[in-house]
Design goal:
Blueprint: H1 7-12, E1 19-21, E2 31-33, E3 43-48, H2 57-65, E4 74-80, E5 83-88, H3 93-99, E6 102-103, E7 106-107, E8 109-113, E9 125-132, H4 137-144, H5 149-157, E10 161-163, E11 166-167, E12 180-183, E13 187-197, E14 203-210
Antiparallel strand pairs: 1-2, 3-5, 3-8, 4-5, 6-7, 9-14, 10-11, 10-12, 12-13, 13-14
Helix pairs in contact: 4-5
Length: 211
């Protein structure tokens, strides 16, 4: 039975006949398969809770793993006020629905939903605009994560930066539209748009900040 693949694992697959599906567009964790309906390979659950309660991705993941499940049977998790969405393998749907009742002290109501009921990932992005002197990774990190160029270089040196899911230590690496930058402990941003130059020769950028 297939398990969910990380972005790095999926990138290593060379079979041109494989389909990769994580339940919704831009999902990071995906299942690879050749034939059959996607519902045969992946499923989705909606987790509802009180809007006054606050839960994070870590809270939901921790609660599910505490049931004794392997991380490989779980896909992406989307969290919103009052609800969360969990993608998983079909054979664990019933088990999760019957046994997952809380995340920490927060009560959950769990129900299976159709894959087309999953929200689009881009709705979890907050747009942020800025300008950079060049498309170098270190400068873009400084702008997107609101830190100094020196701090950006230190993050790179420590190996905390991933560009398109792969570790990158070179601040001179050029970034392009559509690239994803993740910094351990600080979050992720996607370069949504590379705009025109300002009168001072800087380039306008639109970032999508993952919330």
């Amino acid at each position: 039975m297939n398990n969910f693949l990380t972005p790095a694992q999926a990138a290593q697959e060379r079979n041109p006949n494989l389909k990769f599906d994580g339940g919704f567009a831009e999902a990071e964790r995906v299942v690879a398969y050749i034939d059959g309906l996607r519902e045969k390979h992946i499923a989705a659950l909606k987790l509802s809770f009180r809007t006054q309660d606050e839960l994070t991705h870590r809270d939901i993941l921790g609660a599910v793993l505490a049931l004794g499940l392997d991380r490989r049977v779980l896909g992406d998790i989307l969290v919103r006020p009052g609800e969360a969405y969990l993608v998983c393998l079909p054979h664990v749907v019933e088990f999760i629905a019957e046994n997952l009742s809380k995340a920490g002290r927060v009560g959950l109501r769990v129900q299976q939903i159709a894959l087309n009921e999953l929200p689009a990932l881009h709705k979890n992005l907050r747009e942020q605009r800025g300008t950079v002197a060049s498309m170098r990774l270190d400068g873009i990190i400084a702008e997107a994560f609101n830190c100094s160029r020196g701090a950006a270089e230190e993050l790179l040196r420590q190996g905390l930066v991933r560009l398109n899911h792969e570790e990158c230590c070179k601040g001179t690496r050029l970034v392009k539209e559509g690239d994803l930058i993740a910094i351990r402990g600080k979050g992720r941003v996607k370069v949504l748009e590379v705009g025109s130059e300002t009168r001072k020769g800087r380039t306008w950028l639109v970032f999508g900040v993952y919330e």
